[in-house]
Amino acid sequence: MLTDAHCHPFDLLKVFPAMEEERRRLGVLCAASATDREEFAYNEGLAGAAHADGAAGLLPCFAIHPQLPAYMKQRGEECRPGEGLALLETLAGQGRLAAVGEAGFDLFNAQYRETESLQEEIFEAHLDAALRHELPLLIHARRAMHKIFAVSGKLKKCRAAVFHSWPGTADEAQALLGRGVNAFFSFGTTLLHNHRHAMRSCATLPAGRLLLETDAPYQPLRGSARPYSSWEDLPAILAAAAELRRQAGAHGSSAEELERIIETNFCSVFGVTPCPD
């Protein structure tokens, strides 16, 4: 079964109305992130409909995105995370979340760096919630690996830490594992865009630590007729990952074998038992 460790169905719908039909046709099991009440309600509705129809599952996740404080500041608004954190606590307490995420840090440019202290505050609250409710944490860490290593002592207590579109090096990934973090590293279309660090990490890390994702609609394939990513991209991402591992002589070097391994990883992380057929 194809799996997608990180996507945004609510946003994908805006550019691809047939997105859920495509997901069901391909039989993709996915973790769907939401950043507000409306988005979460939409994802939860999709999950319920898929369950009722016996289709491949959709697992709702929730967090305050680390870019939100900067976006609100740009609009002249103050980011007050209390409401979002209260919603997170309610959803987690009611058993309605598959994961806390995506949460983390974005220090890509000066605009985002201006909100670094608020990002730290929000991330700490997310990590605490993941620990308190024994949920995996889906992490966004753009130009912020130093922030992740700074909290690795606490992060290793987390059920699992999933790094969305893994931004680090293979050595950094191994260092996190060496510190006892139950880390999983997710890869998307960067494997097809000649991103050296992502390619080396995917090729050399233990197969039992790998996940795949679309980040739909935000990581379109270059040269594609679609200006957005979707579940149709997963077979190409999987094939690229398997080829990288074949060239490296690593376990999981055929697409069929790697798909089974990644499905097992996904089900372990998100608590899907047993994995759907």
Q: Counting H and I runs of at least 4 residues, what is the number of helices? A: 13
- Tell how many strands the DSSP assignment holds: 8
- Average residue pLDDT: 95
The CATH architecture is: Alpha-Beta Barrel
Radius of gyration: 18 Å
Q: What structural category do the secondary elements indicate? A: alpha/beta
> For the largest beta sheet, what order do the strands appear in spatially?
1-2-3-4-5-6-7-8
Question: Mind telling me the CATH class?
Answer: Alpha Beta
What fold name stands as the CATH topology?
TIM Barrel
- Beta-strand portion reads 5-15%
* Largest beta-sheet characterization: 8 strands, parallel
Q: What are the low-pLDDT stretches, counting only 5+ consecutive residues below 50?
A: none
Count up the domains.
1
Shape: globular
As a percent range, the share of helical residues equals 40-55%
What's the end-to-end separation, in Å? 7 Å
CATH superfamily: Metal-dependent hydrolases
The SSE order reads EHHEHEHHEHHEHHEHEHEHH
